[in-house]
Design brief:
Layout lengths: L2 H20 L10 H14 L2 E3 L14 H10 L4 E2 L7 E4 L7 H14 L11 E4 L10 H9 L1 E5 L13 E3 L8 H4 L9 E6 L8 H7 L4 E4 L12 E6 L1
Parallel strand pairs: 1-2, 1-3, 3-4, 4-5, 5-6, 7-8, 7-9
Helix pairs in contact: 4-5
Bound molecules: 2-acetamido-2-deoxy-beta-D-glucopyranose (2 copies).
One 2-acetamido-2-deoxy-beta-D-glucopyranose binds next to loops.
Length: 238
């Protein structure tokens, strides 16, 4: 995974935090060039992430899976700091397949042992969970689910993902999911993005802003035959 891709992921999570904490009214930061680009440049030089030592049972394996590429890119990146005092985010190197019970035990231990855990109710903590944590989890993992930034696989099951703070790792190519939606090889994409929003679009300011952008096609029901999906470079289902 290129550092650029990693930067974007991290930046997105930072923006999500900034959106919650600064409660800026008006345009979403994601779509504002005057907010996004200067902040992105600033992040490249100032953003710091502290990574905790992996728990003893955790043996990182170097694979070509998105999660291990993410972890190895992160650890080799200039964003890592050894000084927790200057960190914006804290990376919890949980095993990405950690069973819920082990996760809950880890959360209990962290609450007691990690000095930065309680400071923001772990909202500045990031962890990997491939399938994401569901709502039926116990109180400890639920706390992690609700407060920390979760990084999971694409596509994450509905209910295992909280849009304002969580991140999904982009699938690695070749992804079987990519093919049915990608424009055919000899076709030029007419739109930058196609978005299917099954929820209530009026509730999301980002959807409202994208509706007015000619680069995007947004619909709540697929309009078969119009070929919007096939004519778009990227597809997003929310
Ligand atoms: C964090 O808060 C909990 C109570 O909610 C407390 O039991 C725990 O000791 C605190 N952790 C630290 C490291 O101070
Ligand atoms: C390009 O697309 C057309 C349909 O628009 C199709 O008939 C043709 O076979 C395609 N050519 C290639 C090389 O894929």
């Amino acid at each position: 995974m290129a550092v650029n891709q990693l930067s974007l992921l991290l930046f997105r999570s930072l923006l999500a935090i900034a959106t919650i904490t600064s409660a800026v009214a008006g345009a979403t930061p994601y779509l504002s060039p005057t907010t996004l680009f200067p902040n992105y440049q600033k992040m490249l030089t100032t953003f710091k992430i502290y990574t905790y030592a992996p728990p003893s049972q955790f043996t990182p394996t170097v694979t070509t899976q998105p999660e291990s590429l993410f972890t190895t890119s992160l650890l080799a990146s200039p964003f890592v700091t050894q000084d927790p005092e200057e960190a914006h985010l804290f990376f919890l190197p949980f095993h990405p397949d950690l069973p819920t019970r082990s996760l809950a035990r880890q959360v209990r231990e962290n609450r007691q042992n990690l000095p930065y855990w309680n400071r923001t109710l772990e909202a500045d903590h990031v962890f990997l969970s491939l399938s994401g944590i569901d709502y039926s989890s116990d109180r400890n993992s639920l706390e992690l689910k609700k407060n920390s930034v979760q990084i999971s696989h694409f596509p994450t099951t509905y209910g295992h993902f909280i849009p304002h703070k969580d991140i999904t790792l982009p699938p690695l190519n070749p992804s079987p999911l990519a093919h049915p939606h990608a424009p055919p090889a000899n076709k030029t994409a007419m739109y930058l993005g196609y978005m299917r929003s099954d929820g209530l679009p009026e509730e999301s300011s980002i959807v409202n802003e994208l509706i007015n952008d000619p680069d995007f096609v947004i619909e709540s029901q697929p309009s078969d035959g119009l070929g919007y999906m096939g004519n778009s470079k990227f597809c997003l289902f929310v």
